[in-house]
Amino acid sequence: MSSSAMKNAVSHSRVPAGMIQPAIVGATGYSGYELARLLLRHSRMKSPLLLAREGAEQGAAYADYYPQLSGNGTHHLEPFSWQLLRARGVDVLFLATPHEVSRELGPEAAARGIRVIDLSGAWRLREPAHRAVYGFHNEADPEAMAFGATVVYGLPELHRAGIEEAAAVANPGCYATSCILGLAPLAASGLLDAAAGVICDCKSGVSGAGKEPTARTHFVEVADNFSAYSVFRHRHAGEIAEQLKLDDPALTFTPHLLPIPRGILSTIYVRLRSAVTEAEALSIYRQFYAEALFVRVFAPSRLPEVRFSAYTNFCDIGIAVAPDCRRLVVISCLDNLLKGAAGQAVQNMNLMFGFPEQEALA
Amino acid sequence: MSSSAMKNAVSHSRVPAGMIQPAIVGATGYSGYELARLLLRHSRMKSPLLLAREGAEQGAAYADYYPQLSGNGTHHLEPFSWQLLRARGVDVLFLATPHEVSRELGPEAAARGIRVIDLSGAWRLREPAHRAVYGFHNEADPEAMAFGATVVYGLPELHRAGIEEAAAVANPGCYATSCILGLAPLAASGLLDAAAGVICDCKSGVSGAGKEPTARTHFVEVADNFSAYSVFRHRHAGEIAEQLKLDDPALTFTPHLLPIPRGILSTIYVRLRSAVTEAEALSIYRQFYAEALFVRVFAPSRLPEVRFSAYTNFCDIGIAVAPDCRRLVVISCLDNLLKGAAGQAVQNMNLMFGFPEQEALA
Amino acid sequence: MSSSAMKNAVSHSRVPAGMIQPAIVGATGYSGYELARLLLRHSRMKSPLLLAREGAEQGAAYADYYPQLSGNGTHHLEPFSWQLLRARGVDVLFLATPHEVSRELGPEAAARGIRVIDLSGAWRLREPAHRAVYGFHNEADPEAMAFGATVVYGLPELHRAGIEEAAAVANPGCYATSCILGLAPLAASGLLDAAAGVICDCKSGVSGAGKEPTARTHFVEVADNFSAYSVFRHRHAGEIAEQLKLDDPALTFTPHLLPIPRGILSTIYVRLRSAVTEAEALSIYRQFYAEALFVRVFAPSRLPEVRFSAYTNFCDIGIAVAPDCRRLVVISCLDNLLKGAAGQAVQNMNLMFGFPEQEALA
Amino acid sequence: MSSSAMKNAVSHSRVPAGMIQPAIVGATGYSGYELARLLLRHSRMKSPLLLAREGAEQGAAYADYYPQLSGNGTHHLEPFSWQLLRARGVDVLFLATPHEVSRELGPEAAARGIRVIDLSGAWRLREPAHRAVYGFHNEADPEAMAFGATVVYGLPELHRAGIEEAAAVANPGCYATSCILGLAPLAASGLLDAAAGVICDCKSGVSGAGKEPTARTHFVEVADNFSAYSVFRHRHAGEIAEQLKLDDPALTFTPHLLPIPRGILSTIYVRLRSAVTEAEALSIYRQFYAEALFVRVFAPSRLPEVRFSAYTNFCDIGIAVAPDCRRLVVISCLDNLLKGAAGQAVQNMNLMFGFPEQEALA
């Protein structure tokens, strides 16, 4: 990432004259709610269209799902249709939907000239082997392949220039954001000894599992508990490997479920190609993120904790170097619903439309 | 409650010679699990038969539902049938089932000579108006009426003698146990000014809502939260009113959902017919529960808290008297799955079979 | 409260021309942090002076106490002195301090022409009997008595006009805000049967107990637990009684400790002088708060919950009327650190300086 | 560990004829309480002497510290003195004390013929470099060195024969128990590629931090949070390295604080010297622990979770093997207060006195 790619210089011709009309599909989920909340306080956006594809939700008052939003005006869930999107002049469509739905809606929106920000895993991966974990084996759908080739991986700290020009963005996974941002400076510096293996031991709050009530999300099963899941089998591993150009066997990714509503802490273990001091390593991180508005590199005396970045769009990063100067532990924290989902989506939108990057996020 | 009714004198002729065979319907629920756990460590009981009425559970290893019980032998869920109960010589049937199921199975079990301990609300209430909240309006089912007349309300501290002789026991509700035990000494002493109103402000952990995953029990909805529900409409109000002989308008009962897995604390507000000091009031409570093995009356300097009775079969009671000596607050705590459900069920069983009251519960 | 008192009409002459300089004493506590956070995003305020009276804190980086605030610039705790306040041209002094400290600093600040918003209990009470619970028995300190007479009780929904003109405001207690706002419409309407007794059963998150580590705030003692405390002895009872003009014996106030970081839910029980329907009662509340920007009256189908108002400056109110139409339960929720402390303090400041009431709070 | 070492054959001459008298120093801490609770229900033990070294505790009712234990008789804290221990005929002394205190009391108790079970880190380590982290640099204290040489590391699954004969036992650390039991089968089988590095990413509930209220254990700081601490600097690393004969640079140990009261989950990452299938690896674990009463090896379909072993003396172990068959993840769970402290101490005592290993622990 070059420093020029990071800076906030916006080609003003991209800034729309009037107010932008956003729409959200999947507004009743946790990420969808955070999107609605952020967009409602965005100075350049009209009230978002809240779209429901299921009958039960259509027409319902949004405050029935999220009473916490009442007092901010009255909003209703409207039935999704392309006609409605056209009638309302929707400029940008947020897909807070299962990946199968995003797979269906993304290309169509693009074809209709609507910019797309997809929060699912449908369009994040290039490698067929990685895509296969989402059930997208078939590379023979030329339309999907063509659309997919235009989608930019929406991690602003790595792909800012591409996002600014993109018509469609694949918003990264929450775990993936945390791990990639935690490792990128080491990978870029050439210090990372990938052959020795990279271990991402990640812990997430329960909102990452979605709003659907299941045995796994029942309060009594989660409270006072802690557990690993999907060991060697989680979908976000592909994103991390692809973005950091790691071979699969080099990466071990273990997600765990924390008994908290929101927040991710990733503890990342790497070996270094050459010995460094903690000060040298910190300097590499600080330089890499010097212009990143939403990455905070913590001082050596204090490591990030989940609560420091909760309810914010920050990714907080801290490091510790072993006495032998050849092993390094990265602690990377973020709010899975904000920097890990809706916040990053708005950050991407700000870049796509030439708005200040922090608008609605500070 | 006379002191003779309380004492642990057991007519030894009632103690069965061999080991007792229990069976549990509904062993996959939270109360069912606690029952299984307690019965497995009961010195006079064979391993409980674990019975499932639904296809998916039948034949499954119990450890698939409760891995925490593994290492205590291997147990499977067997399909419920009266034939199986007879073949295995079941002596006592625990119904940890929805009240509709208990309504169906209770009379049949009794007719077959099997003792019944029902943990649902099906048979707790005498007053037709109270029973109506369970949908049992029809008094025209003579078999149900006849069986219902034999069922004893299974609160040992109030109905010990009846329980010892009973063939069927209706295990009290968790909230009801807490409130009735908190109020019984005042009611018995004549101090309670029922006409001035009794307010039971009750708070329960989430296991009281059952194991079914719902929007209400999703971790993200419960954690960091607290809420009232069913205000003026909760079913346990009838039990409290009936046991304490309170008119309905005299009783205000408000349940709340605590963000903890288990435990109930009831804060009970009453007015007194005559002024008493805290010492006098405490003495009334201490005398009333002098022989109750599972009620602890706390000293004035410290009030009960949820964690003190969690994982025990105790109901803990503390009081505070207002400076005007005419208002009294009772704090009553118990574990909703033990003294509020499975523990009390085993306590009842111990009395029914002439076992020591504390067996498997200490 | 008249409707004219509620409206947002600001005499523009009171709006200061330049930016206002605030200072906070006690910025390392939980309310102090929330104040700092809110003031930093206030468009009419300079960065707050963060003042420490204890040696250990003086000169420390504020991010050492609240790393979550880093990335918002660098702030240090400076040693409190009147000289410093004068040198920096402090316009308004927030006291997030123990009441003894507020008792000392309040009159001196006023004498120096600095407006005061005191978050402690030092100046909230008029009745000597109520003040006595804070250890302020002595009415013989004429300076304190004179200053006290000028202090306005800072509940904007009841005392808006007074706050707009005040030089010193006593910010209400968190429990008191919740209970007074829950009861005020009934009291004003004449429906409240105070003689029959008012019961406030209140539950608060742990941040209400302050940041000092004690046995009572240790995670292991609080988690999975719930407890009542200070029954018939809590200081906030005086505020509620005084603001609602209730005799002490009429009011029973019981605080409880919830195992959550923040939020209050008060369940309030009253009897009515005449029968009302739920719709009539709701209409009384809606009318009373028609122009209140920070009170939300919930629809009958849904009651407020702690999480709906958490992280906001709203007080959410819902009611349920008994079938006999003579008993009413009020559920009143707020965030104890915002509407119950720092948020309300900023709301008061906005009124005192003629800023939009919602500035920095929406 | 040979299978003969594991079996429960007890030389009956070691079983004492009468009841054993235990004493606990440090009974007011969390481990001390669990010890008291377990010993009170042990069929071969007299009531434990509860000893306090600090003035404030001496003579206090134990129920003032742990009201949950009331109803089990009345117990008081007595001032510690060797005279008292002799007068009461204490047979075994549990030290639930800071390591400095254990350092002082251990040798003296042994010299007086009292068996010692020390729950601190004072006597766990052989290597001077490891001991140094406890501040025990000086090897010149011959009495301490002599006593230390007699102390057996009290992990029954590895050192059963030694414990059975020991006069003094060093009860392992909670993290160390979890990691050593998770790794021992791999180390014994020769599969473990130690040179490639072993990573122990461990997460513990807050009771592991002790009962002293600190900023780190304040509810508001812990709830909704998760954090790493003491990265590359935690004392338990020495125990793990020493027991498994790992060089220090081979072991990376990172503890984290979970927002739960109790329980540890360790996620352990290793590389294997040769490729194995999951079935082969499981078989190695099952065989190694075939006779271990308190280790449960989980089936491949389900991994251990914190709640499964909470409130038990079990260490639960599960594994997952990478698709490349060369990397293995171990999940190891236990209750830090039981198998990680008081439970294991009682298990050790049972072995030392020839009691059934499960007595008071099942």
Largest sheet of chain A: 7 strands, parallel
The chain-level structural class of chain A is alpha/beta
Count of β-strands of chain A: 14
CATH class of the largest domain in chain A: Alpha Beta
CATH superfamily of the largest domain in chain A: NAD(P)-binding Rossmann-like Domain
Short description:
Chain A is an alpha/beta fold and 362 residues long. Chain A has helices at 3-6, 30-40, 62-65, 82-87, 99-111, 128-131, 142-150, 156-165, 174-189, 219-222, 236-244, 278-288, 306-309, 342-353; strands at 22-25, 49-52, 77-79, 92-95, 115-118, 152-153, 168-170, 198-204, 227-228, 251-257, 264-271, 295-297, 315-321, 327-334. The first copy, chain A, folds into 2 domains: 3-171 and 341-353, NAD(P)-binding Rossmann-like Domain (Rossmann fold, 3-Layer(aba) Sandwich); 175-334, Dihydrodipicolinate Reductase, domain 2.
3D structure, described in words:
Four copies of one chain form a homotetramer. The first copy, chain A, has 362 residues and is α/β, with parallel strands linked by helices. Chain A folds into two domains: 3-171 and 341-353, NAD(P)-binding Rossmann-like Domain (Rossmann fold, 3-Layer(aba) Sandwich), CATH 3.40.50; 175-334, Dihydrodipicolinate Reductase, domain 2 (2-Layer Sandwich), CATH 3.30.360.10. The first copy, chain A, has 14 helices and 14 strands. In chain A, the strands form two sheets. Chain A has a seven-stranded parallel β-sheet, with helices on both faces. A seven-stranded mixed β-sheet of chain A has the order 9-10-8-11-14-13-12. In chain A, strand 12, helix 13 and strand 13 form a beta-alpha-beta unit. In chain A, helix 9 (174-189) runs parallel beside helix 11 (236-244). Residues 1-13 of chain A have low confidence and may be disordered.
